[in-house]
Amino acid sequence: MMETAVRSMRLSANPAVGVKLPRAGKPEKTFLTHEQVSALADAAGKPKVTTPDLQPSPEAVRLAEERRTIILILSYCGLRWGEVAALRVERVDTMRRRITVAEAVSEVRGKLVWGHRRRINKGRCQYPSSLLICWMCSRLGRDQRI
Fold it and tell me: In the sheet that 92-93 helps form, which strands lie side by side, from edge to edge?
């Protein structure tokens, strides 16, 4: 703003030149409580009723269970959305309750771009036994994405 005033000859010199601004503080991270995660997962896991008899279709129930599981994976495993979106069934070790993250997906100019993940750690995380990920994996083929 001061430079604009100098260029338009309203000021002869910029009095702010050389003044260092204070560093912006990093915002404190906030995390959901177990109760909040549970409420969010339950809300996402409610099947949408689309039939006249007010009963959800089997497909709606399946999709609701998948949404609930994905929210729990995001909450308790620390994965990013792109990592969960690219997750394949073959990368879920149900015996050791371990997920191996090898790739991620992101949207660039309206198109999905698949690639390797950018994190430094080994790309493995354990998931709590309460997750229904075993159920999801049993319903899909090995090369399918969760």
Answer: 92-93, 98-100, 124-126
Contact 99, 105 (CB under 8 A): no
CA atoms within 13 A on the CB side of 100: 8
This prediction's pTM: 0.66
**In this structure, how many other beta carbons lie within 10 angstroms of the beta carbon of residue 139?**
12
pLDDT, tens digit, 9 for 90 and up, residues 68-93: 888 888 998 888 899 888 888 888 88
User: Apex CA 50: angle with CA 46 and CA 56, to 5°?
Assistant: 50
CA neighbours within 13 Å on the CB side: how many for 82? 15
Domain boundaries, the chain: 32-139
* Pairing label, strands 92-93, 124-126: unpaired
Nearest alpha-carbon partner for 102 in 33, 25, 93, 21: 93
